[in-house]
Amino acid sequence: MKPLPMLSTDAALAEIRRLYFAATRETIERDLARALDLLKALPSEEDRERATVFMQGLTEMRRDWKNRKKKGRKTEG
After folding, report:
1. Does any domain span residue 5?
2. pLDDT by residue (tens digit) across 46-63?
3. Which residue, among 29, 8, 20, 22, has the nearest Cα to 51 in the 3D structure?
């Protein structure tokens, strides 16, 4: 993975938000990893708290999509 360019706090938060709304089952792992990198680069706890809802949403989507995939495999057999 190539290094992330330095973004302003607002740009990093906007990118995390964009990743949340654009995530798909196929991209969720990559999107969550990128959002986590952006989150770690935020300069303050207050800024990180602003991203919390999107980070939680990405995590929930990943969990839900993984659970659906596992359930689908169990019922196929």
Report:
1. no
2. 999 999 999 999 999 999
3. 20
